[in-house]
Amino acid sequence: MWIGWIEFDILLGDVHSLKEKRSVVRPLLAELKRRFEVSVAEVGDHSQYRRTQLGVGLVAADRPHLMEVLAAVERFVAARDRAAQRPPARAPQRGLTPPIAE
Fold it and tell me: pTM for this structure?
């Protein structure tokens, strides 16, 4: 089992209020969930209206699939017209199952 995540630091551009920020971020989160079947959340810069940090995570059976989905998510976010981003942090890790105590 592989666990992977990617973090985005997104500059929202022409946004002037937290309400307007929400109108940009919420559809992006919904589309990421729908299109890629990943867990996604706004993980930082909650009170800044021109910037947000998003975290996307998933669990996959094999590493190639995990890396393929993370790359597709990265391309999708980069292609958004209102979002300029800094280079994302990506971290695939192999999951280890702890022994079950009896």
Answer: 0.77
